[in-house]
Please model this.
Amino acid sequence: MSAKPQTGRRWLLHVGIAVIVLYCLAPFYWMLASAFREPNKQGENTLFPSPLSMENFKGVFRADVGFGRNLLNSVVVAGITTILTLILGTFAAYTIARMEFRGKNLVAGVIIAMSMFPVIALLVPLLRLFTDIGWINTYQAMIVPSLSFALPLTVWVLATFFRQMPKELEEAAMVDGLTRGQAFRKIIIPLAAPGMFTTAILAFIATWNEFIIALTMVNEKSLQTANVAVSKFTGLTGFDSPFGTKMAAGVILTVPLVIVVLIFQRRIIAGLTAGGVK
Model:
């Protein structure tokens, strides 16, 4: 008699998971369907576009659109931000996790508090500052603010990771003659690689998807990131609604992230679960 209730609960669990998966994937599927639907058939609500068309993708990469340059800008901004975030965040996280100094809890609290500030509230002061120092329409105008918002997450995740690693690792290395810096570089960093890799992926995705900072700090078309460029698509005539090309551009922006997660999913999971003493 007890097997039937368990079977029923398992069936309901599977149905619930399926509903959640469909709910999450439905917008992405509709974006794909719209991207491959012919431009003059965007008003149709068919689930399967017929015939499949590449016209929207061709429209995205028209010479006058310059979307290829916008993609390169996104790669540059997200890549540099991720590298700087990982370097600075690793040292800051290790210091907070391992060192004892006056005001340690205050520093950790300030770092976490930084992540609570809404980006929109800081745009006006940043815009005024960057205008005064001549940073408007530059890469650093997008990288520095993104760095300040990505660092708290990086420091928090890596500090937790470093705290889970046994202190005996550094102590044994220093007994063997290494300095603390050498022990950090030769022992801790290799062991922390999964966590650092996971943090880098999260920072890259957050920066890649960033919109409001890039929209505010850059108005020169050749320096805009891909997200900003998509929001300013005007269509073939300049007056029509470029729904299909926007969906095609959305696919182009989303697919690299999906590929990265699928390729490195094991390392991401390892980074999220590693760090404990076994």
